[in-house]
Amino acid sequence: MAKQEDKFKHVISHAKEYGYVFQSSEIYDGLSAVYDYAQNGVELKKNIREYWWKAMVQMNENIVGLDSAIFMHPKIWKASGHVDAFSDPLIDNKDSKKRYRADVLVEDYVGKLDTKIEKEVKKAAKRFGDAFNKSEFLSTNPRVLGYKEKGDAILKRLGQSLEKEDLADVKALIEELEIACPLSGSRNWTDVKQFNLMFGTKLGASAETAMDLYLRPETAQGIFVNFLNVQKTGRMKIPFGIAQTGKAFRNEIVARQFIFRMREFEQMEMQFFIKPGTQGDWYKYWKEARMKWHLSLGLGEDNYRFHDHEKMAHYADAATDIEFRFPFGFKELEGIHSRTDFDLKAHEEHSGKKLQFFDHEENKSYVPYVLETSVGLDRMFLAVFSNSLQEEELENGTTRTVLKLPAVLAPTKAAILPLVKKDGLPEVARKIVEDLKWDFNVTYDEKDAVGRRYRRQDANGTPFCITVDHDTLNDDSVTIRHRDTMEQQRVKISELKGIIEQEVSMKTWLMKM
Fold first, then answer.
1. Same domain, yes or no, for 113 and 54?
2. How many CB atoms within 10 Å of residue 428?
3. CA–CA separation, 34 and 28 (whole Å)
4. 377 and 293 within one domain
5. Are 482 and 464 in contact (CB under 8 A)?
């Protein structure tokens, strides 16, 4: 656990040192659980968003985009159930005075059981070597099965208690598991209470006439209330999807773990409208499709897993999370939900307007069902960044810090380095920058020895370093160095664009799906 905490601290400090993420309002001592994306962070975030958008919208004929407003009519949140049911179960420790999400305390306890399973797997793999069969071990080892059975039973009970709103049993479960406050080690808990997460605000010129509004806690409702507008103007036929990226806001009382859980965050969501009765097939399809998208980035198949929900949201008949192995354990990265027809029917009822699709083949109208995929952009950023940050021991006994970002997502694709700041080398390097910047985000770096510049670009996540030396003046060739392997090769300046394009183009990466 201490090793995980050290890794996470390193992630946070590296994100600041290399211009990825800053604490918001830092010169005023910061604002809790609110962060600013810095010069490199904003590029990485943009690239993740574009990678999702290309795969979701551009590559699918029947999925289109939308950008709905953050401010929406307050009746929308009544219809969606957020006014009455959008809350978290919170519990306070009487000794430390710290507040926690009760469900997260229990889930973290189960996460420790998962860690024990992983340790058993590693021990067995070491013991049996090449003869080790991981899947067979997981399905037969008594100790592993015991941990898994215990974890499943705990999560099932938690889900049932939350679904019945039996908060007393949630507290009883915490006490039975002897879960202590992570800060103080105390088990002196208050009762569990629900807390609504929506931010309230007002719209209007004066206090007397202002309308009470909410900052949207999710982007999905903007899609639902525009369903008919998009369907008619786009002449869309079922099945079809509407995708959206944008900010959402939740008054997280227990905001923690850096940008994993924030009060202002960004979602990448797609609502797929389907014929009632087909949701099972589409649920299976989107589970597979979304996992393929994640795996295309090469972050490691072992770092992902599905977690099917025991406790369903009020709108769902099936739900799963794609969980990722963050430095603090497996946590939700993306949700895939079969939302039935709850949303459109609820908005029909509260608005008095029909939100139905006329099926010409069946000659009848119906309210479509919805299959949702929703991934947190900030969580995706953290998954990519934390997984990519590595410390490597080199053959000469030294170490290097390298940010092995997927090249397609890297903020800067190449750094152009003149070997020295004289003899016409900077001029040639500048010309290369001018040529490449039309197609890629590149940078020029002439400060320090070239080896030190390599290390700086490694830590910054730049996939290529291009060095201009004295031979360049005679043969129009440069040395291109690959970040991940540190291999160097001599190439013609005219070949640079093709080499970089092959490694960083979204087409190359998405073809892996």
1. no
2. 19
3. 13
4. yes
5. yes
- Shared domain for 313 and 252, answered yes or no, is yes
| Alpha-carbon span 61 to 185, nearest angstrom | 55
Q: Which of 393, 420, 446 is the last residue of a domain?
A: 393
Domain membership of residue 82 (yes or no) is no
Look up the pTM and report it: 0.85
> Are 370 and 309 a contacting pair, CB within 8 Å?
no
Running DSSP on this structure, what letter comes out for residue 80? T
Spatial distance between the Cα atoms of 309 and 307, rounded to a whole number of angstroms = 6
Q: What is the pLDDT of residues 47-87, one digit of tens each?
A: 999 999 999 999 999 999 999 999 999 999 999 888 876 77
- Which CATH number does the domain housing residue 10 bear? 3.30.930.10
Span 233-274, pLDDT tens digits: 999 999 999 999 999 999 877 667 899 999 999 999 999 999
For residues 387 and 405, membership in a common domain is answered with no
Cβ atoms of 415 and 445 within 8 Å: the answer is yes
CA-based R_g, the chain, Å? 26
In degrees rounded to 5, what are phi and psi of residue 311? -100, 115
Q: Is residue 77, in this structure, part of any structural domain at all? A: no
Indicate if 384 and 428 belong to the same structural domain: no
Distance, CA of 141 to CA of 138 (rounded, Å): 6
Question: Of 354, 372, 393, which closes a domain?
Answer: 393
Beta strands in 18-62 (DSSP E): 21-23, 35-37
Q: How far apart are CA 176 and CA 199, in angstroms?
A: 34
Segment (H or E) for 194 = strand 193-196
Structural domain that includes position 474: 394-510
Per the structure, the count of domains in the chain is 3
**Would you state the structure tokens that stand for residue 180, as one six-digit string?**
């202590």
- Residue 174 to residue 179: CA distance in whole angstroms: 6
Task: Annotate 20-40 with b (16+ C-beta within 10 A) or e (fewer).
Answer: bbbbbeeeeeeeebebebbeb
Q: In 70-192, where do the E strands start and end?
A: 87-92, 99-101
Report the distance separating Cα 303 and Cα 299, nearest Å: 7
Closest by alpha carbon to 270, among 249, 289, 298, 297?
A: 289
- Phi, psi of 266, rounded to the nearest 5 degrees: -125, 140
Q: What's the DSSP call for residue 190?
A: -
Distance CA 86, CA 196 (A): 6
- 155 falls within a domain: yes
Ranges 243-257, 268-282, 314-328, 350-364: which has the least confidence? 243-257
**143 in any annotated domain:** yes
Q: Phi/psi of residue 442, each to 5°?
A: -125, 165
CA angle 182, 322, 89 (to 5 degrees): 40
- Residue 53 is inside which H or E element, if any? helix 39-53
Cis-peptide into 406, omega within 30 deg: no
Residue 240 CA to residue 66 CA, distance in Å, equals 13
